[in-house]
UniProtKB/TrEMBL annotation:
The keyword Signal applies. It comes from Corallibacter vietnamensis. The lineage of its organism: Bacteria, Pseudomonadati, Bacteroidota, Flavobacteriia, Flavobacteriales. This is Plug domain-containing protein. It comes from the Bacteria. Keywords: Signal. Residues 1-20 form the signal peptide.
Amino acid sequence: MIKTLFAQLSLILFTTVSFSQNLQSDYTESHYLEYFSLEPETIHTQLNKSKYLNSEELWFKSYIYNTKTQKPYLTTTNVYASIYNADGVLIEKKIYYTEHGMTHGNFSFKKNYLPGIYFLKVTTNWMKNFNEPHYSLIQFEIIDSQPKNTNSSNHTPEIKYDFQILPEGGHLVAESTNSIGFKITDQNEDPLVIISGDVLDSENNVVTTIKSNAFGIGKFDLNIKPDESYKIKATLKDSTIIEKSIPKANTTGITISTNNLNNETLFITLNTNKNTLPNLLKSPYYLLIHRDGFMKRIDVSFSQDKYSYTIAVPKKNLYSGINIITLFNEKNQPVLERLLFKKTKKLISDISIAGTHTGIDSTIVTLKSNKKSGYQKGISISVLPTSTKAYNENHTIAASFYLKPYIKGTIHKPNYYFSNDDRRTNYDLDLLLLTQGWSSYDWKNIFFKPQIAKYNFEAGFQIRGEINAKNKENIKEVVLFSANNELMLTSKLKNGQFSFDNLFLMDSSIVSISANTNRGKQISPGVYYNTYPTYIIDSINTKKLINKNIISRDLNSFNFIHGDFNLLDTVNISNNYTQQKERYMVNGGVNNRGINLESGYSFTTRVLDVIRNNGFDVIESGASVKILSRRSSNLSGRLSPNVYLDGVIISDFLETIQYLTVSEIDELYVARTGFGMDGAGGSINIFTKNSIGLKNSRKSDFKNSKIKIGFSMPKKYYSPFYNKAQEETFSKIGVLHWLPNLKPNKREEFVFKIPNYYYESINLYIEGMDEDGSLISTVKTFQLN
């Protein structure tokens, strides 16, 4: 046995890799680098579930990622979320503001949302520049709450299966050793397990044996003889016997076989035959190991009478995540391709249940990440009963960022491949990539269809317009006012035209425009203006999308009622006066805290003293007043908050409120820190009983209009109230909680409450993205007492 092994190894040429450094000198490399000079966004969207009743709401969290740097895509601001029906017709579109590479929102299902299949697409304007845009497209289903009776039958339908033979690298070559992968699924693309099987030749002689893993995937080696035919005869887990013919091999060519299980070294073996080798001796071949614009080159030299070549690549030279190995011939044509994966500690973080405490009405859950100071911007969690049929576990953030940008096929339960870093899990991941064939990269596009930045990043909104007045030369500037958006801006006129850029505008908010003359008089001239970007009606092609016509029939009639059953996102409950004047505090709405003026203040107390007692420094010098934040600062010193009086910004005219007292105030709100595009020093909103600010703003000098498009503001999640008589159906489709942006406390714990409602065991579907790009993608299950 030892002599045989030594004889086999003596025929193999082991090559120590030296990587090419002069990347610009080669035709393929130069085109590759140019093609990936633009950095694409990749978007993943987590839904709170995938099956709804039309009286529910869809809640989502989107993450935007840079696959090249493997970090959050921080440049992104405007994100489009659109819903299409099964025919690809647009039903509804919203724009959401993105911060730190994340955003979240919701859609309320209205009467025009009939039972059926729908798709949520989340994308950006920048993605239009790319031949293979990595937007998020998710299928979900609205189920009829009163489904019609269907004829039932005890007949078990015949299992239809798809049995694929997938050579490693894409080719079978006669008179050569071939590494052959296989994959078997049913009509719903769910895996079928082969417990045993034989590879037979034309005389039904057993050449080798096979079996699959739990995902219906496996591989075997086969030295194919010329003019011989082969087939597979296999037994499934349910004892069904199936057969599949192996395709006929080419008479010439090269095959590839890889071994990725060694911790230190990747072994790449190239095999050929007698018919091919003479041509290879004259031709310079090379391997590229590449991903997202990164690449390394290995020149391959073929020798007389040698048909197998093994190249040893140190794993330290591989890229984190996916590595694509492509073999090119002397004409710079790709010959074969193989995908591999390199796991690093940075890619995936874990999170564990640190504790639970069950009370009478609710349970407190505490989670702890294994990464210190991680995920400070928040994670998203969908909480459902363990028996749920309403969550798609095949759609995860790890798969969306680490696998799907590079493969064309589907992945069953992708979280498994990142659950451990042991030999078995890594072998199954390698099998998955072997059976995916060529990567999603289209080399024709790389060589002949470069990606050009025709579409810009969108950062907020722009208002452009023109003054329609006879004496335009007497107008100095245009004034834009919007109480809803906390805006008071000016724009100088150029040839009668004006522009306001990078605006944070709320959808369907009121915008008012006036003008100031050269003499300082405010007037209301005729104005024409447009808001950009505009609302575009588009569509999607659903012909190749999976399970388009499959609608759930296994759920009973399910009565569903909205109610006021609200949940707290965290354990800490504040008793402060928290009612918000959201109409005037869009940007600071999340951080605003209402001040209870009836407790602790007399009617003669000055408003400036109330502000001083609630986190700000107030400096008075005669008639001059300045308010400074105690928390925020920059290189120039401490920052000032934005101060609003009845919706009008007065930050530069604080003497207006110097002697204002509590007796004149209706409501007062403070935010010590900024939010979104609001003031970095926080905000202060004062509402008087007699609307002093609105009177002083000379509102009549403004022309008012409602903008048609703007940022949709995320709503606070509310838990729907379910009919208690439908426990069984609730366990299949009901949702317990949704936390789109759960942040850690000072102890770096994630703490939240869920109601004790219809279940003994629950699943936490947890996803997150940290500032360094590491991901959380896991499902945690626990039992209640």
